[in-house]
Amino acid sequence: MHVQEIPRTIVERGLDIARFPIDTVTRWAGGDERWTIAVDRLESSVRETAGRLLKDDELVGDARLQRREAAERERALELEVRADETERRGEQRAKAIDARAERAQQAERERAERREDAIDRTERASEQATIAKKTAALDAKEKALRTKATAQRLDDAADAVKAARKSS
């Protein structure tokens, strides 16, 4: 082991020991990635400070790498949150569109029912008018037949009166 590696190993093991209870609590509390990122940033700051104090470029480089990784994970987390939000908004829009479509379909069904009802009423009114015309025609024909029958009886009676006068 190189002399420079001893302090670096002590710093790294010390950070591992300090981080253990924090990681345990974070996992126990549900493993929120934000806590892990915050702890990584804190650890990278401690690692960088120790590296500068010990003049260990590898510790400083590891700290910068750890900070970049934390930033990338934070960016990924933000993108995931945005994606979830976009998905949620998309689902809400889809539900709203579905609801509007359902209302439009319902309105169209109601309009179709009203049109059918209007057609049925028109057909019934037309049938009733036709029946009324036929009834009036039959009534007129019956009246004409009665009038004709009465006229025939009157003609027969007149003929009988004429015949009776001629024979007398």
**Strand pairing plus helix content: what structural class?**
mainly alpha
Strand content: under 5%
Average residue pLDDT: 90
Helix content: over 70%
Oligomer: single chain
The CA-CA distance between the termini, in Å, is 170 Å
The helix/strand order is HHH
| Count of helix runs | 3
Low-confidence stretches: none
Largest sheet: none
Gross geometry: rod-shaped
Number of beta-strand segments = 0
Topology overview:
Layout: H1 5-28, H2 33-53, H3 57-167
Characterise the protein shown here:
- Helices cover 93% and strands 0% of the residues.
- Helix 1 packs antiparallel against helix 2 and helix 2 runs antiparallel to helix 3.
- It is rod-shaped, with a radius of gyration of 52 Å.
Brief write-up:
The chain is built from 3 helices and no strands. It is mainly alpha-helical and about 170 residues long.
Keywords:
168 residues, single chain, mainly alpha, rod-shaped
